[in-house]
Each structure stands twice: as C-alpha cells, then as structure tokens.
Design a protein that fits this description.
The radius of gyration is 20 Å and the shape is globular. By secondary structure, the protein is mostly helical. The longest helix is centred in the middle third of the chain and has 36 residues. Helix 6 runs antiparallel to helix 9 and helix 13 packs parallel to helix 16. Helices cover about 85% and strands about 0% of the residues.
Length: about 280
C-alpha cells in the first residue's frame, strides 16, 4: 500500500479524491481516515483540511443513513494525528483519543437511532432467557434502557477508538515508509506510558465510575493495552524472533480474554520497569 500512499501524496487533489472515494465506499471508511491522517501528519492540520473535509463529507452521508462509525473515526483519527504531530508522543495521542471517544459515548452519539426500547422488545421476543434476565434487572431497580444504551454505546465507542488507532498507525507507517524508513517501527517499539500518564488513566477510570460517566471506565484501559502490544512488538524485535510470533500473538489477542489481561499487565509492569531498556542492555 506504500505505492498508493506515494501516489496520494503527489498533490492535495489526489489525496482529497482518494479520501472521498474511500469514505464513500462501505467498509472502506478506514482507508479514507488513514489518508486524512497521513496528510495531517505530514503537512499539519490547516494544509490537510481539504483532505479531511473530502473524507468527512461522504462519511457524513453515512451518518445521515444511521452509520455513525465512519465520520466518528475520521474526526477522531484526525485529532489524534494533530496531537501526535505536535507532541510526538503516542501515549498523549492515545489518552486524548480515549477522552474524546468516551465523551462521544456519554453524549449518546453511538446510541441506536430509534432508541433502545424497541431493541429491548425485540430481544425479549427473540429469547426467553434474555426476557427473564431483563425482567430480573428491572425487578432489582435497574433501568434496562439506560443500561442497554451505555453498553451499545460503549461497544461502538470501543470499535471507533480501536479503528482510529489502527488508522493512525497505518498513516504513520506510510509516512515513515515514504520519508523516514524504519522510523515507525522504532517509534512504536518504544511506546510506553509514563507513571504520570498511567495515573491520569486510573483517575479518569475511577472518576468515571464515581460520577456515572461509565464510558470513561469502559475505555480508559485502551492506552495501556496499546502500550502492552507495543511491548510485545519491541520484545520480538529485540530478540530477532520470526514474524509468525506476532501473527500468533494477535490471534490469541483477538480470540481470548486472558491474553488481553496479560497484555494489560505487561503494559502496567513496563510503565515502571521499562522492560525494553533492560532487554536492550542485557543484549
């Protein structure tokens, strides 16, 4: 895909056309978002504005059709690209992206267009067990409509945040491939949270639970997860291991919850121990 990125960066009209076309095609919104992020990373927000608008307009059309994910992803990845370009720290871009995604969940942007009541009725009709479970929740005083809204919104916000992070990584890898070969690999392998940044995430998660902003608690662990993934990449790179190890790692990460918990724990340990620096010294 590097050849495509090279062609897109020939001029702004090329990039704008490519971003608009990708955002218009269903399930290719991620490519339009990545193109907007690439131009933002390379040229800055103001010069990239035509490309961002070109990606946002078709994504806005899908928003009007009831699919909020494309436009949310374009806007979120653009914001994260601006932060990464200005601050040169992945951790800060991830934290800001998490905050914005949580705010979108709390504002109800990702709630079902027709509300959750109709969806709950359909679920009750489709399964006796679900109907019994929802009835028990209601008897305990739980507002099932609000619970369903926050769960659906949280899951959708999680998808949008992960998609935006993946698009940002793709854009950064294109930028490195075109202008700084090997730079993205070194940058991603070095990604780790500082103790202060980890403390910010913990405070946000606890405050979210205490203040009823459940979205913060649901999403605040994502930067730590990405830091743990970066640690695994860095470990495999330092040890010179075969790339198939990464394939196996991602298969486990996607299919098993214990792997996610282990990666979170690794990210937590790395925050204080700086594992990659110790590995580099030992080698």
């Amino acid at each position: 895909m590097l050849a495509l990125a090279r062609w897109l960066m020939r001029s702004t009209p090329y990039a704008a056309g490519g971003a608009a076309l990708a955002a218009l095609v269903p399930w290719l919104f991620w490519l339009g978002a990545a193109i907007a992020a690439l131009v933002t990373l390379r040229k800055g927000f103001a010069p990239a504005l035509p490309v961002i608008i070109a990606a946002a307009l078709p994504a806005g059309f899908w928003w009007a059709q009831g699919d909020v994910i494309p436009l949310s992803s374009v806007l979120l990845v653009t914001l994260m690209a601006v932060i990464l370009r200005e601050r040169m720290r992945w951790s800060e871009a991830l934290i800001v992206g998490t905050l914005v995604a949580a705010a979108m969940v709390q504002l109800g942007i990702f709630s079902p267009p027709g509300g959750t009541q109709l969806m709950l009725e359909q679920l009750r009709e489709s399964s006796v067990e679900i109907d019994r479970m929802l009835t028990e929740f209601a008897n305990q005083g739980v507002d099932t409509a609000s619970l369903a809204a926050i769960v659906i919104g949280g899951v959708t916000g999680l998808v949008v945040l992960l998609a935006a992070i993946a698009c940002l990584a793709l854009a950064r890898s294109w930028q490195a491939g075109l202008y700084n070969p090997g730079g993205f690999r070194d940058e991603f392998h070095a990604l780790r949270l500082t103790p202060k940044e980890l403390a910010v995430l913990v405070v946000l998660g606890v405050a979210g639970m205490a203040l009823g902003a459940q979205a913060l608690a649901m999403l605040s662990w994502i930067p730590l997860l990405i830091a743990g993934i970066a640690l695994v990449h860095g470990f495999i790179g330092i040890k010179g291991m075969n790339g198939l190890w990464l394939v196996a790692f991602y298969v486990l990460l996607i299919t098993t919850w214990p792997t996610i918990l282990i990666v979170l724990l690794l990210g937590l340990i790395d925050t204080f121990a700086n594992v990659r620096a110790r590995l580099a010294r030992s080698n």
